[in-house]
Sequence to fold (149 residues):
Amino acid sequence: MRLRTFAPMVILAAAVAGGWSDNAAAAGKIDCKLKFNLRGWSALYKHAEGQGVVSCDNGRTFNVNIVAVGGGLTVGKYRVDNGTGKFSDVSSTDELWGDYAQGEANAGVVKSGTAQVLTKGTATLALAGSGEGVDIGISFGKFTLTPVR
Fold:
């Protein structure tokens, strides 16, 4: 008789534990977003610098510095105001920092916009923004994101 009452408890405990570990794995990913401003220039070599704020759904917020460098067949001077970014496949805020691979094609005069997806390992950063300037060409490089200390 004792065994009968114990068996349903074991099954219930196993089901709850299984559901909890699935939820814990799903809860391991965090959503983070980036708001930024960026100014840059290019003449075969490309250089841009900016600042932004990363905010995550786990309550953490970071002021960040941005540096983008690269090269290619590109020329121009531009700025992006109030750009946005969304990180994907991030399970720790430590994964946000570092160098993302960047490739882009631009053709903008006076008012222009950009949308691109950057990668760093399994993490991705989708950027969108609009601004002003002249920027024409194709370039490759890196987009570096570091927290302000």
Notes: Residues 2-26 form the longest helix (25 residues). The beta strands are 32-56, 61-88, 98-120, 123-147. The first strand starts at residue 32 and ends at 56. Residues 1-26 have pLDDT under 50 and may be disordered.
